[in-house]
Amino acid sequence: MEEFVKLIEQILYMENFNTEVTPELKQKFAQLYSAYGNNVPEKYKGDVSRMATKYGAAVGSNAFSFSY
Q1: Terminal Cα-to-Cα distance of the chain (whole angstroms)
Q2: How confident is the model over 50-59, as pLDDT tens digits?
Q3: What DSSP string runs through 30-64?
Q4: Is the pLDDT of residue 15 over 50?
Q5: Residue ranges per domain, the chain?
Q6: Which of 3, 22, 47, 58 is most buried, judging by how many CB atoms fall within 10 Å of its CB?
Q7: Is 52:37 a contact under the CB 8 Å cutoff?
């Protein structure tokens, strides 16, 4: 999980500075997302959901449950 959080923070940093996210980082995100996507800390859930859509990570039907 710690590795996934570090990757999320790295991608957010790159996005903030309009730096292209490399294909390797996108692939690593997708791999770690499949393992940790359901348990991501609350403060990252919105960003992770957006990244999963943007970078094509496989999103399971119960990947996130939001209460609005």
Answers
A1: 26
A2: 999 988 765 4
A3: HHHHHHHGGG--GGGHHHHHHHHHHTT----TTS-
A4: yes
A5: 2-54
A6: 47
A7: yes
